[in-house]
Write the structure tokens for this entry.
Amino acid sequence: MKISVINGPNLNMVGIREENIYGRQHYDEMMDRLCRVAEEQEVALNIFQSNSEGALIDALHAAYADGADGVIINPGAYTHYSYALHDAIAAIAPIPVIEVHLSNIHAREDFRHKSVTVPACIGQICGLGAEGYELALTKLLFMKNKKELS
Ligand code: DQA
């Protein structure tokens, strides 16, 4: 099973930026931990981070070209206004894409309440910190196993 994890702008600064919101765990530690969880489940993870919208769109297209079984995406602030990312997620259907946010975007500033990308995803996990990525991984595994059994 292959899963792509795509992280958007400023996520590389997690652990340094706004610790009161995003916590103290650094981005690399967070992704290393996710890799260990994936290894235990025999899932091959492809982790990508970029601060550029176009590179994130290319990564979504690449997930499709690589035959990924699922995508976990944290589009960062692009969540709130990137129709291009919405369309890229829609373009790779039927690959299931789960949107993850470390913070609870619904409990923050008004501009964060809306996600323009989530309508193209199967769902959203937010406010659960780094564990949100692990929960998304579990869901994608569950979907894959269910598909194989049916
Ligand atoms: C974020 C929430 C976004 O509103 C913000 O712009 C980010 C991080 C999160 O993971 O909580 O960069 O996606």
